[in-house]
Amino acid sequence: MTAKPPPLFLGIDTGGTYTDAVLWSEEGGPKGKVLAKAKSLTTRHDLAVGISGAVDAVLEQSRTDPASIKLVSMSTTLATNALVEGQGGRVALVMIGFSEADLARDGLKTALGTDPVVFCPGGHDVHGNAAKLDLSGLEAALPELGGSVSGFAVCAYFATRNPAHELAARDLIRDKTGLPVTASHELSAKLGGPRRALTTLLNARLISMIDRLVAATEGFLGQRGIAAPLMVVRGDGALVSAAFARQRPIETILSGPAASLVGARHMTGLDDAMVSDIGGTTTDVAVLDGGRPRLDPEGATVGGFRTMVEAVAMRTFGLGGDSEVTLEDGALDPKILLGPRRLVPLALSGMVHGEAVTTELERQLRAPNPGRMDGRFALRTGVPDRLAAGLTGPEAKLYETIGATPLALDRLLASNAQNATLNRLVARGLVHISGFTPSDAAHVLAKQANWHAATARLGAELFARRRDGRGQTIAATPEEISDRVLVTLTRWSAEYILETAFAEDGLDGAATVAHALVQRAVDAHPGIARFTVALDRPVIGLGASAPLHYAGLPPLVGNGCIVPEDTDVANALGAVVGQVRVSAEARVSQPKEGLFRLASGQTVRDFTEEAKAIEAAEADVRAIAAKRAQDAGTDSAEIEIATDFKVSTIEGQRMFIEANVVAVASGRPRIAV
Prior knowledge:
Blueprint: E1 8-14, E2 18-25, E3 33-41, H1 47-62, E4 69-76, H2 78-84, E5 91-96, H3 108-112, E6 117-120, H4 136-145, E7 151-156, H5 164-177, E8 181-183, H6 193-223, E9 230-233, E10 239-241, H7 242-247, H8 255-268, E11 273-278, E12 283-289, E13 292-293, E14 301-302, E15 305-306, E16 315-317, E17 323-327, E18 336-342, E19 344-345, H9 346-353, H10 355-366, E20 377-380, H11 393-401, E21 407-408, H12 409-412, H13 416-427, E22 431-435, H14 438-444, H15 453-464, H16 478-504, H17 510-522, E23 539-542, H18 546-549, H19 554-557, E24 561-562, H20 570-576, E25 580-592, E26 595-600, E27 603-607, H21 610-632, E28 638-650, E29 653-667
Parallel strand pairs: 1-4, 4-9, 5-6, 5-7, 7-8, 11-23, 19-22, 23-24
Antiparallel strand pairs: 1-2, 2-3, 9-10, 11-12, 12-13, 12-16, 14-15, 17-18, 20-21, 20-22, 25-26, 25-29, 26-27, 28-29
């Protein structure tokens, strides 16, 4: 009898620049075995193209029958990058029971930007008692909003204690517009209305992006005959089903970095380490303690916004191989600045678009003096036209001028106002800017060779002839400026790793201290006071460019830097070795003596006995967690329940205040039979 072949697992990571794929088997020792790995450029206009390029390559390398793949798991940095770069769909925020003054809290007004907001009377108190709900203003605004936004975010006052008003608004919006609606109680059970509203707003912005990613992946898998469940890595490193992720895309922020931590632990076996993952857009730094990533108890911070999403305690910096390279303004000896915005590298533009890019760069080089827009191009991202809804007149006019072929900015823009308009189109995710990046510098120095090196060199020449505060060119050769860019990237990487370590140690002003210590450690003239700094654990360097950018890291951080063999696909590998993990939460309060109110899921119930209320809460969260675990993609969940009581003692008598009951369900994802 022929032995049944072992099940194979396919991991995919869709990053800002590259899509990675890895084919993995549980056989081959405790770490399993990587059978094949490959990379393909992420194609934002049609994500399926990049996915198919990477997956087809691993199938061809391994000569694998697609039917033998029993699980597909995916991580992505798309949501993280979108928040770092300020991108996302235009959505309407519905605030029930809040005032306009609440927008000033927790960065909500900044995050909202020019997107519309509707205020409605209603909401509940801390015990779930309702105020009068009036949705007439929302209903009147829906005809106009329905044609100008891609989705809605709904947040009601104390919705975590009673979600009835959010549910009423959600149903009304869905009935009148058919657009996606995110309600805040679905994302978090924590108090803090404005921050919960912020989290809900960001979730609504990301829905169309993650939906396109999942749809593209599912469509491709179907075409290749891969009939396996599709899982997505969440921000805490756990796996959830694709359907689960589609409804809660905010939970995929830090998905790629979380997967990389799981992959780093799996590849190195290290229990304690700093993990630094450098990609095209961001560098993500986190801490491994006792074999597990530290989680952020306050919620993930991405793009300057503190959310209520439970995720790894990771600091995300706008520093990567495709970071924008600029010069410090107004300095006699200007420093090179990197990021936080991602550009399409000139070498990549040159490879894809050829003479459309090189001809313009050569024209700019022939000019007697450098121009401030030299080496910069604009091109459409290729997103669906419906995501361009709500553009102003100037935005629509400029957007029409820009096409799929890069257009030199010195030909496109005639004023500073137009430049501001272009930046708004970039922030909406409608337009890419192409320009000089560290990836181009690596091509100039022959340390990277996957794109068009000649185009990168033209960009470096243009950048090198920029002027400092004395009117002198900032570098004599393309090689000189390229070397300075790469040295800057390594130094900034060290600063961000140390900043993360200091912040985890609770040190105030971590960024300032990290910068000063790195400066003193590497400058030729350190001064009278000499400093040394050393991490207590090694750094695990992840990312395809880690061997290049982290080679000079050890003397800056005072410890070793390990770059694993499969570091280039750490995220994709981490995606297939993780577990499903979901939670459910219920709260029991005492609005008045002798009355115990249970809020769990979408229901509110009253009891006359504390014990009965706690028993019901535990039964509820167990059932909710089991259902969520099944929806998230596991049939074998183990459930643990923890109850946290808040009580006081008055004249020797115990007085119940509140109880928080949490159930955590975890298990391996189901695989195809």
